[in-house]
Amino acid sequence: MQFPHLFSPISVNSMTIRNRIVMTAMHLGYTPTGEVSDRLVAFYRERAIGGAGLIVVGGCPIDQYGGMPGMIGLFDDRFIPGLERLTTAVKAEGAKIAAQLYQAGRYTHSAMIGGKTPFSASAVRSKLTGETPRALELEEIPEVQQSFATAALRAKKSGFDAVEVLGSAGYLISQFFSLVTNKREDLYGGSLENRMRFGIEVVRKVREAVGADYPVMMRLAGNEFMPGGNENKEARVFAAELEKSGVDLFDITGGWHETRIPQLSTFVPRKAFVYLAQGIKSAVSVPVIASNRINDPATGEQILRRGESDMVTMARGLIADPYLPKKAAEGREKEILHCLACNQGCFDSIFRMRSVTCTVNPRAGLESDVETTAPSRRKRVLVIGGGPAGMKAACTAAERGHHVTLVEKENVLGGQVLLNRVIPGRKEMVSLARDLSNNLSALGVNVVLGREADPGFIKDMAPDALVIATGAVSNVPDIPGVEGGNVYQAWDVLCEKVSVGRKVAVVGGNAVGLETALFLASQGTISPETLHFLVVNKAESWEIIEGLISKGNKEVTVIEMTKKVGQDIGASTRWTVLAEAGRLGVNIITGARVAEITGSGVMVEKEGGSDLLPADSVVLATGSKSVNSLSAAMAGVVQEIHTIGDAVQPRNGLEAVKEGFLVGLKI
After folding, report:
1. N or C: which terminal CB in the chain sees fewer CB atoms within 10 Å?
2. For the chain, which domains are there?
3. Where are the beta strands (DSSP E) in 309-364?
4. Stretch among 46-60, 246-260, 364-378 having the lowest mean pLDDT
5. CB 277 within 8 A of CB 308
6. How many whole angstroms separate alpha carbon 296 and alpha carbon 663?
7. Percent of the chain as helix, strand, coil, to the nearest 5
8. 71: alpha, beta or left, given left = phi > 0 and alpha = psi -120 to 50?
9. Residue 68: CA count within 13 A, CB half-sphere
10. Tell me, what's the pLDDT at 339?
């Protein structure tokens, strides 16, 4: 496929960018002291080598009162030498680089700024931090605004090609712009004109500091998605005024950190928020960037071809595959490893105060430490198991030059990843199996499907190295009645090998249990295509349509022993899963134990007694156990044996793929 729009250059003020692909700012956790590290330089340099047009780094705190530990410092001249090293490395590879000017306001934790109270437009409690900021005094405002300008000039001196003023996501400029957080009664509060004033003055001071020909960008929320907040119509007015004040390029996103509208998870359709950028584009004459859930060059090309925006962002997409642009430009788009929007390695890691990695790309953040170098001796490598761990091990070993054969007993590659095909909001995960399979083919790996690799088969193959990635099987709990005819395993339900009745009890409130519940509860609801048809033709009232999209033909109850369901789901995704379960009417019982399964339901024990929960069918989501008998059987037969993934111990996809990668490097 050709991508003429995606790979056309674009000029922004005095800056010419080689293509329309932007890597937006993401907190990575690679700069623990705020100083640029070798790790950060190597990470961004690889994205530049891979073909990104513009890379925005940050957030970069403009002062010591609105950031968090580990962010890239821009509030003192001592950071300049490191920043120069970063900008030199990126620009040497043909990409442009910008610094995002960051001030979080009420989203700052007091503990992270020496116990000081964060400031904001008004003293409105932050649901994100649980703290109430203080309102900036009128006389303090010019000093805070000047900090943006001083940081912008520092960025220019450090070699950045542009700066991006952060005016989205509920940070300080957003807090002045929004009625949700701005309760002021002076010239910075009340009317839309007054609420825009703080951000406009910031941009004017930045423009004055950096000069007329230096590119100034603005990251703006096209809709706050907050009750009582600004929508696209207000954002359009703000953007038009910001353009007059000196903004050369708008980077449009949506939502705040507090919004209950998913922005980045797999529940968000691809390019769902492009319409926000299109709205801003209608109000300004400078270029506009569309953001969120754009992880594929074909999607980006379509957006640009249709004139919906002038550039597109692929932040997580370039974490997953730094060579996405290069592969697309060279006609190798089938080899791209796409972002899954799983958030396990990126956002969930940051929420745990860890540095960013990636389920799809275990090398992310390790570019300065890990190289896929050729082995001292090329070996015959046999990989048993075609799940994510096995496929990644085979890809990595083959990339290094080994002769690799992968054997999978099923007739298709993917393992448990394929279960996501039927789970609402999880279908994107299946692309991991497709992408790894495409790379196996491109790397010349011999793939054998539908063959059980028993000890005799392995001996005949006589490999120099054996990788056992035989996965896991469903666990059967010790519950009276568990062998009954109305009891099924969750994996079998998700594979659609079995059908269940109208009333279903799901035993186990882990990720698999909740996802199975979503699958079952969605049965009988209308499809997106039917929804569109009914709405366009006004065939039903909205009240009826809401029922059709939210009420299926099954009554589903999840029973969990602990006090909290979904504990194995990352923080950035768990709330969306629970929200979807609530929308679909899934009943969740926590702190309960299934004492017995009968033909009419399950006996549930809680504090204070037990009750029979009526159920036609019972679905078990009670974990899994490893399948690894080949490890012992091959000991002494094959000189080099590695066991990885669920075959060692059941784990998540991020851990499994990482193990496969590391073993592929080790052989």
Report:
1. N
2. 10-351 (3.20.20.70), 380-474+625-666 (3.40.50.720), 487-622 (3.50.50.60)
3. 311-313
4. 364-378
5. yes
6. 29
7. 35, 20, 45
8. beta
9. 18
10. 94
Establish whether the linkage from the previous residue to 59 is cis, with ω within 30° of 0: yes
Q: How far is CA 625 from the centre of its chain?
A: 28
> What count of other Cβ atoms lies within 10 Å of the Cβ of residue 410?
15
Widest CA span in the chain: 83
Confidence band (pLDDT; 50, 70, 90) for 232?
very high
Task: Classify 100 as helix, strand or coil.
Answer: strand
**Percent of the chain, pLDDT > 70?**
100
Give the type of residue at 493.
V
Could you tell me what percent of the chain has a pLDDT over 90?
Answer: 90
pLDDT above 90: residue 108: yes
Inter-residue contact 386 to 415 (CB < 8 Å): yes
Distance, CA of 458 to CA of 387 (rounded, Å): 18
Output phi, psi for 362, to 5 deg. -65, -15
Q: Cα–Cα distance between 346 and 28 in angstroms, integer?
A: 8
Phi, psi for residue 641 in degrees, rounded to 5: -125, 135
Residue 413 is predicted with a pLDDT of 97
Query: Could you tell me whether strands 54-61 and 380-384 are parallel, antiparallel, or unpaired per DSSP bridges?
Result: unpaired
**What residue spans of 295-417 are helical by DSSP H?**
297-305, 315-320, 324-329, 347-351, 388-399
Please name the amino acid found at residue 610.
Answer: S
The first and second tokens of residue 404, run together, are 């690799």
DSSP conformation class of 177: H
d(CA 546, CA 573): 23
Phi, psi of 489, deg, nearest 5? -85, 145
Record the tokens describing residue 244, joined without a space: 């007059």
**pTM higher than 0.70:** yes
Position 571 confidence tier, pLDDT thresholds 50, 70, 90: confident
Neighbours of 252 (CB within 10 A): 30
Could you tell me how many helices (H) and strands (E) the chain has, helices first?
21, 27
DSSP 8-state class, residue 243: H
Angstrom distance (rounded) from CA 394 to CA 388: 10
**Alpha carbon distance 638, 543 (integer Å):** 65
Q: What angle do CA 332, 271, 418 make, to 5 degrees?
A: 65
b/e per residue 192-230 (b: at least 16 CB within 10 A):
eebbbbbbbbbbbbbbebbeeebbbbbbbbbbbbbeebb
Q: And the tokens for 457?
A: 């088969």
Torsion angle (degrees, nearest 10) of CA 380, 386, 387, 390:
0
* Residue 144 and residue 136 in contact, taking contact as beta carbons nearer than 8 Å: yes
Q: Any idea which residue has 């405002």 for tokens?
A: 141
Q: For residue 624, which phi and psi values (nearest 5 degrees)?
A: -145, 170
d(CA 264, CA 284): 26
Helix (H) or strand (E) holding 556: strand 555-559
Q: Write phi, then psi, for 523 (nearest 5 degrees).
A: -65, 130
Calculate ∠ Cα 242-248-251, nearest 5°.
Answer: 80
Instruction: Report the first-to-last Cα separation within the chain, whole angstroms.
Output: 36
Q: pLDDT category, 624, cuts 50, 70, 90?
A: very high
Q: What is the DSSP letter of 526?
A: P
pLDDT band at residue 69 under the 50/70/90 scheme: confident
Query: How is 314-343 classified by DSSP, letter by letter?
Result: -HHHHHH-TTHHHHHHTT-GGG--------
- Count the Cβ atoms, other than its own, within 10 Å of residue 92: 11
Q: CB 477: neighbour CB atoms within 10 A?
A: 12
DSSP 110: G
Distances (CA, A) of 461 to 394, 405, 464, 469, 660: 16, 9, 9, 17, 21
**pLDDT by residue (tens digit) across 482-492?**
998 899 999 99
